[in-house]
Amino acid sequence: MRRIFSAISAFALLGASAAHGAVTSIKDSGFAIENSVEIAADAQSVYALLAAPDRWWSSAHTYSGVAGNLTLEPRAGGCFCERLPGPGGSSGSVEHARVIFAAPHKQLRLSGALGPLQAEGVMGTLDITITPTKKGVRVTVGYVAGGYVRMGMAPIAPMVDKVLGEQLAQLKRVAEVRKP
């Protein structure tokens, strides 16, 4: 967890995000963020890519340090999980979130405390919507988290916003790669 928090902090200090995002609300008890990006790809391809976080999620924002250990089952009850390889072939795992709503090619909603929030008394809802546009789709990622965070919600909300913005920008880059 310390590695993830350090990565989140480092990224927040850079202040860079290709996606349009913002902390839309912050209170002592929680926060809401929203990021969106236009992707020159069809909804079916983008939805399929969402189900393959090993292809677009940043390794810097994983517990194992390897995005290839991530999986996501896009169905109610499905897990956004990560394998944690250990010594001698042993293996652990972490559940980042659980799918609570899946509408193929339109919307994916997950419930879970992401990153360093997992060690706090927090619950979060990650809502990903795909809306057709003239040039492809607009993907909007909203995250609402509430509960108790020892360091307070105000310092963590912008960090989470930046990290999710980075993931959305990477989703765009991967989705727009043209195959020969």
UniProtKB/TrEMBL annotation:
Residues making up the signal peptide according to the UniProt record: 1-21
Domain of life: Bacteria
InterPro entries attached to this UniProt entry: Polyketide_cyclase/dehydratase (IPR019587), START-like_dom_sf (IPR023393)
UniProt keyword Signal, yes or no: yes
Keyword annotations of the record: Signal
Presence of the UniProt keyword Cell wall biogenesis/degradation in the record: no
Designated name of the protein: SRPBCC domain-containing protein
